[in-house]
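Re: the pair you flagged

First of the two:
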Amino acid sequence: NSLLGYETNMDLTCSDGIDEIVTALRENVRDNALDHCVRVQHIDWNDYTNLHEKESIAPNILSSSTSGSKVDTIIFADCIYNEECAMALCRTICHLLKRP
C-alpha cells in the first residue's frame, strides 16, 4: 500500500491553502475509499504568521486529530512559489511540528 499510515494506523492529513485544491483532495480521498484513514483540511499559512498576536483565533488543526498533539512528520513538495510564502510556511511548520 502506498499510504504508510493506512497500514500503521497513523493519522494522515492532506492539506492545501486553496479551496479548489482542498475540494479536489477530498474527492480523491473519497474516490479511493480512504476517507476512514485520511483527513483533508484547508490550512492557510498566513493564519500562523503572527501567531503570538492571534493565537486564540488561529485555527488549530491539531484539535480535530485523534491524538490532539503536534505532528511527527510533515511532507510537502513544490509549495513555495515566492519568497513571501517562506516565512509563513516556516511559522506554520514550527507551530505544527513536534520538537525533538
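Second of the two:
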Amino acid sequence: VVYTFELVVEEDEEAGLCVEKREGPIEFMKDPNETGMSFVATGQEARKEGCSCIYGNPCQDKYICNNWEKRFDVAKSNGWKGY
C-alpha cells in the first residue's frame, strides 16, 4: 500500500530555522498511523531515528539521545541558539 501526502512548510530563514531543502514528494515507508514512522524524499535513503542533539536540536526522547543529561549543551555546541 502506498500513501501519498503533500507537505507544505513555511520556514523563517531570517531566524535561522531553515534546516534542509528537499525536492520531490515524500514517500512513507509504512502506515503513517504507526508510531516511529520513517519517511524519505524520492531518490534518497530513509533517515533512521536517532539523536538530534548532534544536529543542533535537543532530543525529546531520552532513549534515543546519546547524552540525555547534557543534551542542551551538545545541541548548543552544534548550532542551537537556545530558544
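Residues 56 and 78 are 5 Å apart (CA to CA).

-B.
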